[in-house]
Design goal:
Layout lengths: L1 E6 L2 E6 L6 H7 L18 E4 L2 E4 L12 E3 L5 H13 L9 H14 L5 H7 L11 H20 L1
Parallel strand pairs: 1-5
Antiparallel strand pairs: 1-2, 3-4, 3-5
Amino acid sequence: MLIEITLNGKTVKAEVAADTTLYDFVREHGCYSVKCGCETSNCGLCTVFLEDKPVLSCSVLAVRADHCRVTTLEGLQEEAGEFVTFIADQGAEQCGFCNPGFVMNALALFRENPYPKEEEIKEFLSGNLCRCSGYEGQLRGILNFLESMKQKEAEG
């Protein structure tokens, strides 16, 4: 069936099978930041924004995104740019495999709650799989990023 998706700001029309996942669709269209670590909706690596809400693309059929906006990390480079340096400063991107999904979910959190408390961060990001770092580096990176944002706002 023919679908039309606005992918990272560009209209993409494509013929897809009824069982094509959104994950497969975005990967087929060059969005390689989207990873798949489980195929069971448990790891968060395949997170994309569908109409500005985070979804697990391995669990959404591409036809469900017909005539919708889908954004991957490739479409959020400017928004993510400063934040990812704080993650890297903590050595929390060891293999890098989980980072795109983690960053997508962190950005979703910041959009929903610009200054979350530590427990809120842990709860929001609990669905993200990372086998390398034990999550402490990511948490420190987020907390440092939020502190930097608060300082910038105060200097403002």
